[in-house]
């Protein structure tokens, strides 16, 4: 079974050289779900149980990765069936939300996933950084052990809507070099009192040398200035720097000109698995007191169907059944509302939800937030 799964995943993701075997080991074979046709393995996917930060609170989230169906079984609903089965299992297990990166958005929309946030790689030429001030020292971390970064990472993650409470496999892959690659890591500040860190690799390409920032945490202005000046000091060897950030990147505010550009961008999708759990698990803007009467439709996870009242106070939400159903939406459209990717007004404008003026106003207050993003691709 394991061999068949590995063979299918290698073919689906055009890999080899033991990469898929290592991936299966890292995730744990027990976290794969498989679909059979005529007693043969037809395909599979990986489930990554982790968390995602919303409103400063960690919400239980299961990431879905490497959905692959063998070519001879494609086009007959195998991926849909596998995913439906997995979603029902997540509901039964009490998972609140699920996220994934879609190769085919239309497939996952049929399973009620919708755009939830951004994944962006930014790029700037090292000569354009022009930040000279370096208030803090940097200390190399050798050998790299990702555990030393967890505390700083969690502090940044809590403040960043959409950030993952990373699955151990995501941490492992972050510091695992690909072939011919070396991973470098530095604390920004002293080892005893770091104010941030940077993990990166360097690559020689036809278009010049690139420094890839694989992960960063910057907790203070001094750390952010040091980050930029450290990167600027690579300008005689390195042509471009690339890093992951929000679609609206505040780090670029420290650069003198608007020379940094988004080099790659895509949106990850989110599905609310359990309406009550998802709405109660997350945090909300402190200082607002509001009530929202929702009416949800979910054709797959039917426990989500019906009317709910979400009452928000002191940064937390409480859900009760019933109410006036003033904001009507499919479970799919709850995703971009939940994540604040779009405002209720703009979602209504494109026909994604339907609500009274009071409901739109309430939802706008409750789901106010900054542009959601995550640094990790999985
Ligand atoms: C993407 C993949 C998983 C789909 O598997 P599948 O079993 O053929 O999918 P299904 O038959 O269940 O398709 C269901 C729906 O998904 C959509 N879909 C599936 N494959 C599609 C494609 N290549 N292009 C556009 N839409 C597609 C369609 O809307 C389809 O519904 P329809 O047949 O009613 O139009 C499969 O092609 C695959 O393994 N590809 C290689 C690996 C990959 O890209 N994985 C995705 C990682 S997120």
Structural write-up:
- By secondary structure, the protein is an alpha+beta fold.
- It folds into 3 domains: 2-112, 3-Layer(aba) Sandwich (Aminopeptidase), CATH 3.40.630; 120-267, 3-Layer(aba) Sandwich (Aminopeptidase); 274-366, Nonspecific Lipid-transfer Protein, Chain A.
- The chain is 27% helix and 34% strand.
- It has 11 helices and 17 strands.
- Strands 1, 2, 3, 4, 5, 6, 7, 8, 9, 10, 11 and 12 form a 12-stranded mixed sheet that branches. The protein has a 5-stranded mixed sheet with strand order 15-14-13-16-17.
- Helix 1 (2-12) crosses helix 2 (19-27).
- It is globular and about 60 Å long.
- The mean pLDDT is 95.
- It binds coenzyme A.
Mind sketching the topology for me?
Layout: H1 2-12, H2 19-27, E1 32-37, E2 40-54, E3 57-69, H3 78-93, E4 97-100, H4 105-109, E5 114-125, E6 138-140, H5 150-158, E7 164-165, H6 168-175, E8 184-189, E9 194-205, E10 208-218, H7 221-232, E11 240-245, E12 261-272, H8 275-281, E13 290-297, E14 306-313, E15 316-321, E16 327-330, H9 331-338, H10 344-349, E17 354-355, H11 357-366
Parallel strand pairs: 3-4, 10-11, 13-16
Antiparallel strand pairs: 1-2, 2-3, 2-7, 4-12, 5-11, 5-12, 6-8, 8-9, 9-10, 13-14, 14-15, 16-17
The structure holds coenzyme A.
């Amino acid at each position: 079974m394991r061999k068949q799964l590995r063979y299918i995943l290698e073919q689906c993701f055009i890999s080899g050289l033991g990469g898929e075997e290592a991936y299966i080991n890292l995730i744990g074979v027990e976290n794969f779900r498989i679909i059979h046709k005529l007693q043969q393995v037809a395909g599979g996917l990986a489930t990554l149980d982790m968390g995602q930060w919303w409103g400063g609170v960690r919400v239980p989230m299961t990431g879905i990765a490497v959905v692959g169906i063998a070519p001879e079984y494609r086009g007959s609903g195998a991926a849909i069936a596998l995913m439906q089965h997995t979603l029902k299992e997540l509901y039964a297990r009490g998972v609140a939300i699920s996220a994934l990166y879609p190769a085919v958005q239309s497939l996952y929309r049929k399973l009620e996933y919708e755009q939830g946030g951004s994944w962006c790689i930014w790029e700037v030429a090292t000569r354009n950084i022009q930040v000279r001030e370096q208030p803090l020292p940097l200390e190399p971390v050798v050998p790299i052990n990702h555990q030393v970064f967890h505390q700083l990472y969690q502090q940044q993650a809590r403040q960043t809507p959409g950030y993952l409470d990373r699955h151990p496999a995501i941490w492992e892959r972050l510091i695992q070099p690909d072939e011919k690659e070396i991973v470098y890591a530095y604390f920004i500040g002293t080892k005893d009192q770091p104010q941030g860190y940077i993990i990166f690799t360097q690559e020689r390409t036809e278009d010049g040398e690139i420094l890839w920032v694989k992960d960063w945490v910057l907790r203070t202005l001094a750390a952010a200035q040091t980050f930029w000046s450290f990167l600027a000091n690579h300008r005689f060897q390195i042509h471009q720097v690339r890093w992951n950030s929000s679609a609206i990147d505040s780090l670029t505010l420290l650069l003198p000109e608007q020379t940094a550009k988004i080099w790659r961008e895509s949106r990850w999708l989110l599905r609310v698995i359990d309406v009550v759990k998802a709405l109660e698990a997350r945090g909300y803007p402190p200082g607002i007191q509001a009530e929202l009467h929702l009416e949800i439709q979910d054709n797959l996870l039917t426990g989500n169907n019906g009317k709910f009242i979400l009452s928000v106070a002191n940064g937390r939400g409480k859900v009760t059944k019933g109410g006036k159903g003033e904001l009507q939406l499919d479970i799919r459209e709850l995703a971009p509302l939940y994540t604040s990717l779009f405002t209720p007004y703009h979602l209504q404008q494109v026909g994604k939800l339907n609500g009274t003026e009071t409901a739109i106003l309430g939802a706008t207050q409750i789901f106010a937030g900054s542009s959601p993003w995550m640094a990790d691709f999985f």
